[in-house]
Specification:
This protein has 145 residues and is an alpha+beta fold. The chain contains 3 helices and 8 strands; from the N terminus they run αββββαββββα.
Length: 145
Amino acid sequence: MTSYVMELRGLIGNRLLLLPSVAAVIHNYAGNLLLQEKASGEGWSLPAGAIEPGETPQEAVTREVAEETGLAVSSVSILGVFGGREFRYTYPNGHSVEYVVTLFKCYVHQGRGAWTDTETKSLRYFTKDDMPSLALPYPVSALFP
């Protein structure tokens, strides 16, 4: 959690926080989708995270992917912007958020080795048919355009 979000949490506690964020759609050469297994036991998700103050959405998605996967990427296009009640989530610690997510299609430049944060347990590519359910309800048409 960024120091900015921690500061807000100190002011509002567990109340609902509207959070601008980004997520990355990354495919391998076979068209399979990269997902991140959360170390917290929350299941699988896209590499994603909050936009920090002063950061552009493109900078945020590049940073989040590097931290959570060890991959160096650039954003190619915006696949959609999602939010609303379906993008509300309550973390195990009780913090409630409603994400406004800019979903980026990303191109991998290179692997940089292991991820650098503690949020990631593992990474795996999935086909459209064997993909697990995600914490947030991204439309499959956006994940496999």
